[in-house]
Amino acid sequence: MKKVLLLIAVAFGLISCEEVIQLDIPDTPPRLIVNGRVTDTLPVEAQVFATAPYFAGEVPGVSDVSIILFENGTRVDSLIESDTAAGYYYGSHVGSLGSVYHLSIEVFDGNEYFDAGEWVSRDEEIKRCPPIDSFFSEYRESAPFQEEGYYVAAHFTEPAGVGDNYRLRAWRNDSIQNTPFDLQFFEDEFSDGLSFGTPPVPALTVDGPKPVGTTYKIELGSITRDYFDFLAILQQQTVQVGSPFDPPPAAVVGNIFRKGDPEDFALGFFNASTLQYAEAVIVE
Amino acid sequence: MNRLASLSIALFSSTLAFSQSDVSVSGTITDATTGESIIGASVRDLDGEGAAASNPYGFYSLKIGPGSHRIVVSYLGFRNDTLLVRSGDVDIQHNFRLIPSAKQIDEVVVTETRDNDNITNTEMSVTTLSSKEIQKIPQLLGETDVIRSLTLLPGVTTVGEGASGFNVRGGNVDQNLILLDEAPVFNSSHLFGFFSVFNADAVKDVKLYKGGIPSVYGGRLSSVLDVRQKEGNNQEFAGNGGIGLLSSRLTLEGPIIKDKMSFMVAGRRSYLDIFLPLSPNEDIASTKLYFYDLNAKINYKINDRNRVFLSAYYGRDVLGFSELFDFGWGNLTTTARWNYIVSDDFFMNVTGVYSDYTYNIGTPEDQATSFNLDSRIRNYIGNMNFTWYANNNHTVDFGINTTTYVFYPGEITGIVETSLQNEQAFEAAAFIADEWKINEFFTISAGLRYSGMVNYGPRTVLDYEDGAPILNDSTVVGSTTYDNNEVIASYFDINGFEPRLAVNYTIDETQSLKLSYNRTRQYIHLISNTTSPTPVDVWRPSGKYIEPAMADQVAIGYFRNLMDNKIKFSVEAYYKQFYNLVDYKDGADLIFQDNIEKELLFGDGRAYGLEFMIEKKSGWLTGWVSYTLARTERKVEGEFRATRINGGDWYPANFDKPHDLSIVLNAQLSDKWDIGLNFAYQTGRPVTYPDALSEYQGIFYPVYSNRNGARIPDYHRLDLSATYVLESTKYWEQSLSFGIYNVYGRNNPYSIFFRQDVETAQPQAVQLSIFAAPIPFITYNFSF
């Protein structure tokens, strides 16, 4: 259905024209951004930034912030800032399936961007994620919404029980695909307990058409519904823009809040995942 | 009834009439050349107090006292007709057949009265446009467009060119009751909003109520657009049509039985798609994009008292991409009506309507990944309306309306088969109104409408935790299944009373003051959070979680006619308050949702403004100038951050345009040449600018906090057109129309939006414009 809206927008595009313009947008005081992730595979990490004027094109890292990881309510790790990249913080703790995590972020007096204050994330649980059964390339004929050529796709079996959500990330020729159009996440509403790649559920297409020899790595992660909703609004606000048939601009609200006041939110998201990896090369 | 009985009734009523010293004069008013009934013709007793206007079926009824009376009927564009009535006469039935003033050849004096009904009646915030007037306005690609013409009137706006629907005095597009021969039209646009579904050739008359909405109408908050199709020429066979750049059209009409039965059929088909394959761009070349529509009507005058009408409309848009994908949508309406003149002062109309709006999207069936989605809304309407012309001081309207709705929000077939649950609703209303001429200064039109609706099963509805916000599945505690016809929610309650009041204080023959108040209630809602509604947006009824929306409006106006009613000036001020409007959560996903309440918020609205209009409807130069100063705002102040919009503060609606100026002029330069001009200026509509830039894993995204806090640059545009009458014969008249839309090529922005550049990943602001260049057109028109 979203594709239909996209096509309506294409039809609309026949008679419209776009031009990049210069605008004067007043600056506003910086706001805190915290992005982080705990997984069952890699050590915990987080990035802390300050928002910048819209046209600045980058957001500055925020140094000297205390970031504590809690597992099932108990403090388990304190993240340490990178020596080389301001605002990038790394811990050593690796999460475990079924545990619940949150971050506590403290900004101290004298911070370059913010007044002192304490921020927390909402709880995130590491959910189950089935292994990737296979990851392969194949040649496909032309079909609706599909040009002919080589595609990479994965098979995996969705465990029984509605309510699982997933995010897929891909590296093509060792380069991560991270434009707004690359965001891929899905729920099991229509595929609960079924195998991707066995009718009626098609294989999970990752990319294509691409030339023979292209290498791929994929990461399939279980995600919470909160994170799914965050990705959905992030995608909506970055992809579905411009045509009269797009939703209105809206705040992309994550799960970081001022401690004791869930209505006062910072930007960004701290998420928890089980991760599965697979690699493939396009072959003839 | 045998002759004796009718004679005795006639004698009796004449005695009664004599005893009351009045006699009624009633009948119909039609165009002598075509037999079309004339709506709103003025009927006056020159030797008494009585005055009336013909109703939508051309019926009038008037009471006269003893003595002799001259009854004069007048209507713009027609010669006056006078009936002499002598005293002592029994009730008189007389059908007036007016001769168009342009057609008269042998008469010496043109007696065409410009009436001052606009001064003396209680109607305010109402505009009538005839098909002829609309056809004189310069139009995009020469396509005569009813709705685009309406947006040139004060108080009517759209979010931009090419947006579906229109906004009346701060109302959303779903708050307009659009009636085509009394059948509701759910989507008034073709090609997403560039053209309207009304074929101007098939339309007789368009009347827009922005306020002072009579109690006969209900079910929408903001306006009524009453479109009446032509009945068909019952005198002779005739036709007209046009061949244009975008589309061609043909209308045929004629008598089936002269004076008694006639038909009208009209068709239109656009052929933009014929040129698309010429495009070098493969995507465009393989696109299908067209619309067509058909209007048909038959009417049969059984006798002087009974008349029946059957009318239908079918319109469809088709959009396709290569052989991959097809998308179609359209309205179907059918109306059956029976007019019965019960007695000389009692008129009845019974209407039955079936209407269906549908869209479907599909891929070819043989594909492995084929799918098809269908969505529709059907309704069945029964109306009984009565008018009792009690005497010259009281006209009473009353009746009942019922609508049964079935909503089919979506069914998917193909590789995945799934469907949303249907929703059923029944809406009913009863109304009464009295137009009371208190004295020569005051006239009051007081009405009351009571309406309500029930939403009934079968359907399974989710239950949520008490006191918690309905945000997502986290607060779902269970579900309730309702049986067939079991009531899920009922809104037959105290809020169902909708008072309607209009007061006219006639200062003198040339000026009056008017005041109106109306409450309206709406039970069905278009679920759409995009700037312009799309054809795939669905309508949902009020139910367990969606309450009916309500609006109150007060308006006051001063009306003044100048130069012997040649020039009509009006200024109106209005204030309107909206309650319980449907709004949408940030990031709402409205597509294919069974439990739509999880995506919705409810808020209030307010709109206020001043509307000026000066118009000249007769003479070689006609047209109007209108200016509106208005604001429209919305407020959604939920208990939680996630259930508020804009922090719970008032914010401007998408179509809030404080200044709106329109100039529409038409000059009849000679028998051959006719030129038209229109100019529009509007404040740029609100858009949201980002406060700052944020980032998530390499994706830059804008931070928004102030909804609609900025505006795009102002809009202005000039259009010109000319019509040249070509060499014509008695049997074949022809003309050529040509013109330019957006003469000076103003690059009017439609929106400004923010995105990350695909290549450099840098944030940027992008302006989107439509029709940024002058667009010429040429159309060949003919009639026979």
Automatic annotation (TrEMBL), chain A:
Pfam families assigned to the protein according to its UniProt record, in alphabetical order: DUF4249
InterPro entries documented for this protein: DUF4249
Highest taxon above the source species: Bacteria
Annotated protein name in UniProt: DUF4249 domain-containing protein
Annotated source species: Phaeocystidibacter luteus
From TrEMBL, chain B:
Keywords: Cell outer membrane, Membrane, Receptor, Signal, Transmembrane, Transmembrane beta strand, Transport
Signal peptide: 1-19
Main localization of the protein described in the UniProt heading: membrane
Topology of the protein relative to the lipid bilayer: Multi-pass membrane protein
Record's subcellular location: Cell outer membrane
Any one GO molecular function term: siderophore uptake transmembrane transporter activity
GO cellular-component term (any): cell outer membrane
InterPro entries given in the database record: Beta-barrel_TonB_sf, CarboxyPept-like_regulatory, Plug_dom, Plug_dom_sf, TonB-dep_rcpt-like
Highest taxon listed in the record's lineage: Bacteria
Domain TonB-dependent receptor plug: 121-220
GO biological process: siderophore transmembrane transport
PANTHER family attached to this UniProt entry: HEMOGLOBIN AND HEMOGLOBIN-HAPTOGLOBIN-BINDING PROTEIN 1-RELATED, TONB-DEPENDENT OUTER MEMBRANE RECEPTOR
Similarity comment: Belongs to the TonB-dependent receptor family.
UniProt name for this protein: TonB-dependent receptor
Lineage of producing organism: Bacteria, Pseudomonadati, Bacteroidota, Flavobacteriia, Flavobacteriales
